[in-house]
Amino acid sequence: MNTAQRIFKNTGVLFIAQIINYALAFFYTIYLARYLGVDEFGVLSFGLSFTLLMGVTADLGLSILAVREIARDKSISPYYTGNIIMLKLVLCAATLAFITLFINILNYPSQTIYVVYILGFWMVFTSFTQLFFSVFQAYEKMEYQAVGIILPGVILLFGVFYGISNNFNILWFALIYLISSLMGLISVLLIYLAKFPRPQLRIDWDFWKSKILLALPLSIAAIFSTIAFRVDTVLLSLLQGDAAVGWYSASYKVIEILLFIPIVYNAAIFPVLSKFYVNSHESIQLVYAKSIKYLIILGLPLAAGITILSNDIILILYQSEFAPSVMTLQILIWTIPLILLTMIFSYILISMNKQVLIIRLTFIYMIFNVAVNLVVIPQFSYLGASVVTVLSELVNFILLYYYLSKFICKVPIAKYVWKPALATGIMTVFMGMVNLNLFILILTSAILYLGLLILFKTFSEGDIDLIKKLVAR
């Protein structure tokens, strides 16, 4: 199996798993939001964002580092993984202490504090699951990761329906997040013990020190990135209240569901990029250029189509109580074309050992996001936060593209944009003019967009040959 076929296989497996997972999330999020209402849905969303924001100290970039290091030399896997497990036990204990301290300092109501306590353990179990995912990715065995993705989603779905049918309060729904993450961790641990070299549980202080120092740039970058990604929800909670968080989070959940696309793609391609850096700079250039082209083709129609359909999407998903989320979604959806690119850009830089540069760029990204949110949220609430999120991603894209143009090659983005943009424009006009059933409209619009891409000769002979090889495989 060649490199392209391995990427296709792993991307396909994860894509299917994430499709199933997000289909499950689609249902339990809708019913959760409808059942809890705007305010309590805002409390749960705040708890998830707050624990994820604090949870960056539970990993410190070690999981990403593990993918890169084990992918380059699989013989180190047992010793490496065993030491990281022991190290993460210490880090997770410290993180839970930080969560307890800060949520009490912020003086939230007791119900919110209990939700955060429960979700703190959810975050810990999720962090350990991610470590085993890293090993699966390093070995390019994403089918095992698929199990750890789907099982928690199934448990969450049934737990949410059970809680609603029994009229349970918000603490039950926080608890079902915890139970689902624990079962997901158990499942991937059993797979790991059965299929991979068993970890050598060690406390090697020199190893811990060296890996923390090596991962330090990644951990700092992860902290900055998580702050930039999650701080808007926390600030909305502090400055505008639970209702604003609920309306904002309803739209943000749609964005998070779409993020499975870059997450799947990057998980499949990162181990390959790590080896390319050692063996073939030319191959990195090819992956970089092709990724830009294909992700632009995917991102533009997604953003434009959801902008047109946002009213239908919000009212179908959440009903009229969440009507203020419509405009938020119309703004936030334009982060998707940018995030599709910035995520792969970041992974390329990591594969090239440019961690220090990643720190600088994510720091600028974070400072811009936090500073502008502090100015905008008091005046414009969740709509202002939405605009700041898009602007922050644009800043991030410009910075990453500038440096990748220096280190790899300058890809003429305008050349790759104009045909998909023209096809997207025509598709958008079509969607605005016709009056069809929502699902029929989406299907016909997608067919129209693909037909226009072919008509405009967007795909080169090299693209077509690659697609044929992958399909044949």
Task: Name its key features.
single chain, 473 residues, mainly alpha, 87% helix, disordered C terminus
Description:
By secondary structure, the chain is mainly α. The protein has one domain (3-411). Helices cover 87% and strands 0% of the residues. It is built from 16 helices and no strands.
What is the number of independent domains?
1
pLDDT < 50 runs, ≥5 residues? 469-473
Approximate helicity band: over 70%
User: How many angstroms does the end-to-end distance come to?
Assistant: 9 Å
**Sequence of secondary-structure elements:** HHHHHHHHHHHHHHHH
Question: How many DSSP helices?
Answer: 16
Largest sheet report: none
Strand segment tally: 0
Structural class: mainly alpha
Approximate strand percentage: under 5%
Coarse morphology = globular
- Radius of gyration (Å): 22 Å
**Whole-number average pLDDT?**
82
